[in-house]
């Protein structure tokens, strides 16, 4: 019997047993739109630097990034992305499963996003290949780099990076455990309809992390270099807000 995206997302997972600041959960890794907008979701059900949190990332066509999060910037995604952000907004963020493959995402009054998650031959192959890797291989940067080089072309997602540095200067590692395609059914940000899915004219990046050129959903483990205020940029950009 196949595991649905909802079942996989809600399955309890322990934090990866590796050095660093660790998270586990699920994500819409990135969802580009033909209009030039981009969205992403992070729902980390456990983490080593604070409680579980949910965040939505939005990039507008001018390249300005906002992170909406229900966690303080220093305990969420902005801990790693702050230097690349125009603003952070602390607000209620929710990812609600309305069916085994349907996800309704909101961030305050600004974001309403409906996503359908489905398998494809490419995502099924990528998931199977990942399950054949020994557990320890996912903790090896060389293996993660090799997996990423193959995954991008197979998934038709442009370049993918599972290792590298984030904008605030820490190194990162990401291990997608199960993978599906995602399709936006509707998305509105700040009253603007983002329109249809579609690749960006130039693939976007946040540090070494690449936003895929097609929407992907994954259950994922991630870990980062511990934050050092002497070497790493702060979590909050100049436009931090609370609402």
Explain how this protein is built.
It is a single chain. With 243 residues, the chain is α+β, with helices and mostly antiparallel strands. It is built from four helices and 15 strands. Strands 1, 2, 3, 4, 5, 6, 7, 8, 9, 10, 11, 14 and 15 form a 13-stranded mixed β-sheet that branches. Strands 12-13 form a two-stranded antiparallel sheet. A hairpin with a 2-residue loop joins strand 12 (205-206) and strand 13. The model has no long low-confidence stretch (mean pLDDT 93).
Question: Total strand count, please?
Answer: 15
Unreliable stretches (pLDDT < 50, length at least 5) are: none
- Tally of helical runs: 4
Q: Structural class of the secondary structure composition?
A: alpha+beta
Beta-strand share of residues: 35-45%
Rg: 16 Å
Order of helices and strands: HEEEEHEEEEHHEEEEEEE
Give the proportion of residues in helices. Answer: 10-25%
The biggest beta sheet reads: 13 strands, mixed
The end-to-end span amounts to: 43 Å
Averaged pLDDT, please? 93
Tell me the overall shape. globular
Blueprint (SSEs and pairs):
Elements: H1 5-10, E1 21-32, E2 38-47, E3 53-59, E4 65-69, H2 78-81, E5 87-90, E6 93-99, E7 102-107, E8 111-118, H3 121-132, H4 141-155, E9 163-165, E10 171-189, E11 192-193, E12 205-206, E13 209-210, E14 216-224, E15 241-242
Parallel strand pairs: 4-5, 5-15
Antiparallel strand pairs: 1-2, 1-14, 2-3, 3-4, 6-7, 7-8, 8-10, 9-10, 10-11, 10-14, 12-13
């Amino acid at each position: 019997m196949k595991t649905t995206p909802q079942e996989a997302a809600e399955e309890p997972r322990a934090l990866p047993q590796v050095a660093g600041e660790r998270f586990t959960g699920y994500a819409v890794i990135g969802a580009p739109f033909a209009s030039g907008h981009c969205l992403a979701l992070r729902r980390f059900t456990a983490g080593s630097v604070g409680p579980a949190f949910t965040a939505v990332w939005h990039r507008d066509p001018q390249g300005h990034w906002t992170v909406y999060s229900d966690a303080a910037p220093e305990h969420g995604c902005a801990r790693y992305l702050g230097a690349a952000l125009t603003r952070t907004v602390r607000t209620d963020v929710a990812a609600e499963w309305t069916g085994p493959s349907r996800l309704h995402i909101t961030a305050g009054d600004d974001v309403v996003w409906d996503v359908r998650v489905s398998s494809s031959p490419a995502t099924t192959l990528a998931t199977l290949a990942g399950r054949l890797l020994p557990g320890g291989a996912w903790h090896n940067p060389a293996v993660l780099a090799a997996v990423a080089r193959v995954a991008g072309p197979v998934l038709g997602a442009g370049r993918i990076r599972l290792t590298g540095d984030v904008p605030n200067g820490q190194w990162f590692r990401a291990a997608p455990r199960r993978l599906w395609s995602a399709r936006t059914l509707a998305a509105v940000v700040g009253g603007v309809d983002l329109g249809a899915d579609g690749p960006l004219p130039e693939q976007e990046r946040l540090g070494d992390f690449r936003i895929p050129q097609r929407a992907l959903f994954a259950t994922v483990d991630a870990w980062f270099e511990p934050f050092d205020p002497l070497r790493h940029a702060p979590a909050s950009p100049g436009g931090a807000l609370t609402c």
